[in-house]
Amino acid sequence: MAPGDLALVAAAAGVALVPRPALPAATAPLALHPLAAPVTRTVSAAVRAGTTRRPDQRRVLDLPRGAAAAWSPAG
């Protein structure tokens, strides 16, 4: 989400799809409407070839997978 996207929505100049973690604490004067069907995305990590067997790097790469598994769509 680019800075100003929500300002455009607030000015009635557009609509924005915003991931829950990116929503500001205060959303007035906006109205939030959850989507009827969930949206998924694929996230990739770019690492130098041959380094993915390093234990420290493997732990960092496993963090998003664990967070995604623990996340509940109900929020």
Task: Please name the defining characteristics of this protein.
mainly alpha, 2 helices, elongated
SSE diagram, text form:
Blueprint: H1 5-10, H2 55-70
Low-confidence stretches: none
Q: Helicity range of the residues?
A: 25-40%
**What is the overall number of helices?**
2
- Estimate the global geometry from the Cα principal axes: elongated
- Seen as an oligomer or otherwise, the chain set is single chain
- The number of distinct β-strands equals 0
Tally the structural domains: 1
Structural class: mainly alpha
Structural write-up:
29% of the residues lie in helices and 0% in strands. It has one domain (5-32, 40-70). With 75 residues, the protein is mainly alpha-helical. The protein starts with a helix and ends in a 5-residue tail after the last helix. The longest helix is centred in the last third of the chain and has 16 residues, at 55-70.
Could you write a compact summary of the structure shown?
This protein is mostly helical. 29% of the residues lie in helices and 0% in strands.
